[in-house]
Design goal:
Elements: H1 2-9, H2 18-25, E1 58-60, H3 76-82, E2 85-87, H4 111-119, E3 136-138, E4 145-150, E5 157-162, E6 167-171, E7 179-183, E8 190-195, E9 201-206, E10 210-215, E11 220-226, E12 231-237, E13 240-248, E14 252-257, E15 262-268, E16 274-279, E17 285-290, E18 302-306, E19 312-314, E20 326-329, E21 335-340, E22 344-349, E23 356-362, E24 374-376, E25 382-385, E26 391-396, E27 402-407, E28 413-418, E29 426-430, E30 435-438
Antiparallel strand pairs: 1-2, 3-30, 4-5, 5-6, 6-7, 8-9, 9-10, 10-11, 12-13, 13-14, 14-15, 16-17, 17-18, 18-19, 20-21, 21-22, 22-23, 24-25, 25-26, 26-27, 28-29, 29-30
Length: about 450
């Protein structure tokens, strides 16, 4: 009985008997110091960042001087001290530096190109001077390229946006590596890219429901504009580079202020996805194109908006049952055009009531459901458009006659862009990821 009493008296789990038990047990077993959880050591320099985070959770066992004696009672505090401690890894950084592949300066490009760019000779191009051949192939995208644009402040640079989640910056005439930057800040396909007129910045948008402003020279993302919709198009204000429009999959158009990082206006008619936006020639209005095929309300596919009042000025501009993936304003004359999935480009007056020209349109190319874009030359005398047959079509804007077509790709040619200084140079991109320059 004495043995049983002694055994049960040393096996109690009650916390209040803990001290009494230790006083009696000191006569039978040596005292083992209670192990307490060690505190995390304080760094010598608290402002020093930890540059090598642990990649996975690491089990850090508690150090102990002596092993526990078998059969000895272990209190709750000791059990907590002897339990393994899990050290969680530091969260990975959300912003990573993109790879810098080449030089963005014009120090290593052809001398004839340098002379043309620095003299900025914006002479008119005769129709016979339009290039017939592909001179420069720019390989880097692994999927379809949705948009491209020349920089007006650094006209040797070309930006492209791809379905491979990247924005590429091309130093087109560089003798060495032509792919100068690759930005992978978007987590999904990139739909559009635009150069800012002030400094080396590009604005891109895409399927990750964001627009992102990137410093091309430093290779850093400077601002992110998040939305609750896929952002399909962005457009800088022609007279204020701090403002830009964005349009997305829920039919919302927003006017953003880069200085505050917030939307200052919102334009909503409850329509389908926004396909394109374009400022009118007076910049007090803009035109939006929507995919309203599911709603069977074709008269709302093109809407002219008042920028300040946020109200539509006309919603019956185009009443045919086709979507229009591209809107462009003429650089000089008061009219704008809309690329129609009916395989033609329609012409509209840029003045109220924004009437459709029923007697003239551009029709020789094909659209066939692709997001085919078009662009005017700087002098406004030529119109170039991509085509579903992989060709670039050139039209005379005076009489809408077809001037020439150039076969550049085996797949659909998606976007085309005239060079801002050299009028005989045009860039294009394709549905299979090719980017090229014809001169």
């Amino acid at each position: 009985m004495d043995l049983l009493c002694n055994a049960y008296s040393t096996a109690s789990d009650e916390d209040e008997d803990e001290d009494h038990h230790h006083r009696h047990s000191q006569r039978r077993i040596p005292e083992i110091p209670t192990l307490r959880p060690s505190k995390r050591p304080k760094p010598q320099n608290p402002h020093t960042a930890i540059t090598n985070p642990l990649p996975f959770p690491t089990i850090i066992p508690q150090t102990q001087n002596e092993p526990p004696i078998p059969g000895r009672y272990i209190s709750k505090r000791e059990r907590a001290a002897l339990a393994p401690r899990v050290s969680h890894p530091f969260p990975p950084s959300s912003v990573t530096s993109p790879p810098v592949l080449g030089n963005i300066s014009d120090a290593n490009i052809r001398h004839d190109i340098i002379a043309s760019l620095r003299h900025k000779t914006k002479e008119r191009t005769q129709f016979s001077q339009i290039s017939r051949r592909l001179s420069i192939a720019l390989n880097g995208h692994s999927k379809a390229v949705n948009a491209l644009q020349w920089s007006t402040s650094h006209p040797h640079l070309l930006a492209s946006a791809g379905m491979d989640n990247t924005v590429c910056i091309w130093n087109v005439w560089n003798r060495d590596e032509k792919q100068a930057r690759v930005f992978s800040y978007h987590t999904a396909a990139v739909k559009d890219v635009k150069w800012s007129v002030q400094g080396l910045f590009v604005l891109s948008c895409g399927y990750d429901s964001s627009s992102r402003l990137i410093d091309v020279e430093k290779g850093l993302e400077t601002q992110v504009f998040k939305e609750e919709q896929v952002v399909s198009v962005v457009k800088f204000h022609p007279n204020n580079s701090s403002l830009f429009l964005s349009g997305g999959s829920k039919g919302l158009v927003r006017l953003w202020d880069i200085r505050t990082g917030k939307a200052v206006h919102q334009y909503n008619r409850g329509l389908g996805p926004i396909l394109d936006v374009e400022f009118n020639i007076d910049t007090k209005q803009f035109i939006s194109s929507s995919d309203v095929s599911k709603g069977n309300v074709s008269e709302n596919s093109i809407i002219v908006w008042d920028v300040t009042r946020q109200v539509p000025l006309s919603n019956q501009v185009y009443v045919e049952a086709y979507t229009c993936p591209c809107i462009r304003c003429h650089p000089i004359d008061p009219y704008f055009i809309a690329q129609s999935n009916g395989n033609y480009i329609a012409i509209f007056s840029a003045k109220t009531p924004f009437k459709l020209d029923k007697y003239k349109r551009y029709e020789s190319h094909g659209v066939s459901g692709f997001p085919i874009k078009c662009n005017f030359s700087l002098d406004g005398e030529k119109l170039a458009t991509g085509s579903s047959d992989g060709c670039i079509y050139f039209y005379n804007t005076k009489n809408t006659d077809l001037i020439r077509k150039i076969k550049v790709y085996e797949h659909a040619c998606i976007d085309v862009a005239f060079h801002p200084i050299m009028p005989n140079v045009i860039a294009s991109c394709s549905w299979n990821g090719d980017v090229s320059v014809s001169e």
